[in-house]
Amino acid sequence: MAVRIPGWRWCLALTLVGVLVALPAAVGAWPVQEPSVSAATLLARVRVSDRVAWSGYGEARGDLVLPDVAALEDLPELISGSTRLRAWWRGPAQFRVDALSLADESDVVVDGGDTWTWESGDRVATLLLGGADVRLPRAADLVAPALGARLARSAALRVERRPARRLAGRDAAGLRLRPADPSRTTVDHIDLWVEPLTGLALRVEVHGRGGAGAALTSVLLDLDLSAPPASRTRFTPPTDARVEVVDAPDIAAAADRFSPYLLPATLAGLPRRSDAGDQRGVATYGRGLTALSVVPLRRRTAGRLLRGLEGDTALLSGEAEISTALVQGRVARNGRRAYLLAGTVPQEVISTALAELRRQPPPRRSA
Asked: Comparing 43-52, 73-82, 215-224, 259-268, which segment has the lowest mean pLDDT?
């Protein structure tokens, strides 16, 4: 038997649907008040904003397509797709960021000297001993306030104001960062929209040279400026979890810890970012938005990367390129040595750096 619904209920239902459909447009049309703060003041606030306590929910989207190579861990998926992020931030040494999917989540919990990762799908909890100064990027690095603060601390920037936007229910001041020397970087500009009092970046867009849109975007959709409770940044493995303890979580961290070579103080005309006497196995060169990282590889690891990037052809030539709108790279073998070079520099800079490494092989570092 058909059920007759009174006409007023249909009208009410249609009205509610219409309101819901129009809601995103209405929110986007909310009047925005332009904060009266200079570009220099905003930049200074963003640079120290990692001291501000907050919690929120957001999303990071990348358009940097990398081959799905096992040695790169979750990096290809992380920077070439969309990642939902939930974060509780008490400070740079006390935070939790969860990367959420429909089926499970991947969490990073930092509480003082301890760093835990949690993979709910595999039920694996990993304790990273002593932290890792050099490692592959992870989802926690892409949450908008943390990403914005890190990029804003780059040297040699030209800064200008951009129109404000309404984000996470707040008026966010716009800021554009450009490299002082655009000829040596693939970064064209970075746009930030910032909560003006705290300096927290609510939206970050990184644009590569010649790209039609942002190569990397991170945005906060919800923001709470009250300090999250300390319990949010503590982690105790569930009773059914498999617990692992590691000191080198990926190929970059392993190379930094175990590589036998002492990389040079300058490469391709770029200065090393750490002290010249640094004994670390991995080095990053350049200033500001010009960055080139050099990772010495074991030949077996280099072989896996070469095969994953370009198949057997790369194995024969001993070399393979990585190319995206923002990140350029090269995996290369030369005799007993192999390197991964990658960063926000053109391929010509990478070629020069690789030629220098081949011409003057780095000496062995002290034990």
From this structure: 73-82
